[in-house]
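Appendix B. Chain record.
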Amino acid sequence: MVIRILIILLADAGKTIAATATILGCCEQTVLNQRKRFLERRSEGPVAALMDLPRSGRPVIHNAQKRAHTIVVVCEILHE
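Structure tokens predicted for this chain:
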């Protein structure tokens, strides 16, 4: 989820797909997929668009409080 947030923040800052992939150390397809997913779900609100969709299988390990803390930490890092 942290990578997803960083991808969206870098896109908002005007970074290209290639530049974002280089900065984050991931492939361009990952950046493209996450940007597309965010745009498709943005009508649900910015936080909902960043969250994982429900999945079958093992229950979620991190609760909402842990996720909120992660978002705060990432935002603080980017603000510095």
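Further analysis of this model is presented in Appendix C.
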